[in-house]
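Subject: Interface between my chains keeps coming out wrong

I've been trying for a while to get a sensible model of this assembly. When I model each chain on its own everything looks fine, but I need the whole thing in one frame so I can look at the contacts. Pasting all components below, labels as-is. Any help appreciated, I'm running out of ideas.
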Amino acid sequence: MKYPWKKLLPRYLILTVFMLLVLLPLWGMFTSAFKTGVEVMAGPFSLPRELSLQNFEQAWRVGRFSVFFKNSVIVATTVVVSSVFLSTLSGYAFGSLPLPGKTWLYPLMLIGYMVPFEAVIIPLYNFMDKLGLTETLWALILPQVGLSISFGTMWMASFFENAPEELTDAAAIDGCSRWQTLWYILFPIAKPAVTTLIVLIFMWTWNEFLLALVMVQNESLRTLPVGLAFFQGKYTANIPLMAAGAIIVALPTILIYILFQRFFIRGMLGGAVKG
Amino acid sequence: MARVKYRYPGESRWKGWWYVLPALTVYLLFTFLPILETIRTSFYQWDGFSQQKTWIGFANYLEIFSDPKFHNALRNNLVFVIFYSIIPILIGLFLASLLSRRPIPGFAFFRTALFLPQVISMVVVGVVWRWMFNPTSGPINIALNWLGLGRFAISWLGDFTWALPAVGSIGTWVQYGFCMILFLAGMQRIQEEYYEAASLDGANALNQFLHITVPSLRSEIAVALVTTIIAALRVFDLVYTTTRGGPGESTMVTGFLIYRSAFMLNRIGYAAALATVLTLIILIISLLIRRYQRHGVEEDA
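Reply #2:
Try treating it as a single job with all components included. I did that and got this:
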């Protein structure tokens, strides 16, 4: 059953209004990055007169966004790879293996999934300080892996729990070990679940702020969000430059979101109760 | 119901533990034990540097509950709940019910755009909206001046009355698309016959919405409530980048109070107590809402 045009039109209108409310601020910021200060004042949402990349160049070099970008890539890659690997292993145990003590182990892991970074940041800082890891990227990576594992384990466990039994039974009859069954039989069919996990953990890590703010003071170890926050303090009035910085921070997650949209939305709607 | 897990012949029953152990170790060290340590620290007075930690029992908690700064921050968090949770859920329900049930050609495009704020760093969101609210060069005041409403063109983020709703409305901007898409996904489940039967009984659109749509979306509403309320209670990045709690204490929130007490004022024990209270509030609210959700599922069954 389809809507007749007369009924579709008002629906499109209201949807467009709410969509523009979301897009206009982003559009304004995006175009500002290509403008001069005078141009921004003249018309905040107008198209730039010429596509000058000067602001990006200045943010990238003078604003040291190249350094922040490198740090963010290192942190995000390490966190994603190690969390997904460890979560797959533990999720497999929770979902498919006999696991004595599972009844208390499961809620124990679940707590990390509900607790915010604010709850752990103070002792984490002292702990990292004792280990001599503050002022290193490890101080950003390790806690983020810990927190991601909590969600990742639940996520992968629910996948393995529902994996077709015939497959694993057949593998067992053919003499596959548990390890082989996991990596050769189950992992290949887990691609959608793993992709969702990858994009979510990537996004959380890329956008993480508090941990990165607290753990390193050294400017050359800052990640993009913290770099941008300090950059804003310095160049408040220079809107085109700020806009260029903001785009460098936001573009990677936006691109990945657009490419993997269905995984993103499925993951975040699937009870991913996490900010 | 969970399936019974069979062991392979000759396999140790502890095999699963080898798979859990690496993840569990990292989780315990960097997430779980720090939670316990936060609770322990909350019973001490400590400046973060000196060797001397003094056990003071519940004194930090007593101070929190009589501290007007905490009352103010918590009240601001509750105002954020209205902007982060209540308003977006209402907008989401309105938009979802507007579209309901029949496919709209080209909807995927709208969905992509509406969900976008969810994937952007809150620091970027803060930067964007600081520009939007900028008293002289911000689009909001430019628009107000253009409309001849120049006397309403105030310094939004610097105003004692308007800073809080201004920052809060950024939360609304972030959350409503998420709520709407969540509800639309849930509405796919509702059977058309309910609405047909209701129309035959003469129920109007509003009644259908209140008596069919909303109850059927119970589970989605619960997820939206948990997600958005938690976001409102732990808000930090956005406040840090837009107002730093100011002007005065007018946009101060608990998350920022924790940060300030721990890392600027060196009151570690006090900050830990604040963190414990905030975490408890979040846990209790999540559990209550989950309970409401499960209750609904049982009723349906």
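Reply #3:
Confirming on my end. Chain A touches chain B through 103 residues (CB under 8 Å).
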